[in-house]
Amino acid sequence: MNRFLYVFLCLVILSACGLSRNESSPSDIDLNEGMSDTAEDGNQSDEELLVESRSARININHQNGYSRLESEKLVRNYLNINDKSNAIVLFDREENDNYILKVVETTNDNEKSTPYKWYSVNPQTGEVKPYK
After folding, report:
1. Neighbours of 3 (CB within 10 A)
2. How many other CB atoms are there within 10 angstroms of residue 91's CB atom?
3. Which region ranges are annotated with the description Disordered (predicted)?
4. Spatial CA neighbour of 123 closest among 54, 55, 63, 77
């Protein structure tokens, strides 16, 4: 009788430790939540910029024009940035029918060595200009 009671109590306790229907499972959690602007000064770290750039949506809705991803390549070509460079080119926003991109150069210690440099790309013509 004691064994039966012990087994019954163990089953009750173990089944009570599972997730309830109202709790979220680990697959429901957004791992990127809160990734932007987490530094005390309000700026994103280099790691956050890379994560954001990898997960950014690619806009390819400009017919006979350049996508956001292609605009990053245009800026890299404009600045002669090769694949071994420490420069990171990131799409930032659309403004006045142009893409605005930022370029950051990092050191091997992942610290910013230069401030942001901004560039504007016309998605229709592919023209790259420094942005002011």
Report:
1. 7
2. 22
3. 23-45
4. 63
Return the exposure string of 18-35: e unless at least 16 CB atoms fall within 10 Å of the residue's CB, then b: eeeeeeeeeeeeeeeeeb
Q: Order across the sheet with 128-130: list the strands.
A: 87-95, 98-105, 117-121, 128-130
The Cα–Cα gap between 85 and 6 comes to 66
CATH of domain 44-57+64-132: 3.30.160
For the residues of 56-123, what is the DSSP string, one character each? SPP----TTS--HHHHHHHHHHHTT--TTSSEEEEEEEEETTEEEEEEEEB-TTS-BSS--EEEEE-T
Indicate the domain borders of the chain: 44-57+64-132
Question: 69-110: per-residue pLDDT in tens?
Answer: 899 999 999 998 888 888 888 889 999 889 999 998 877 665
Taking the model in full, what pTM does it have? Answer: 0.51
String of DSSP letters for 19-75: PPTTSPPGGGS-TTTT-SS-STTSPPPHHHHHHHHHHSPP----TTS--HHHHHHHH
Contact between 38 and 48 under an 8 Å Cβ cutoff? The reply is: yes
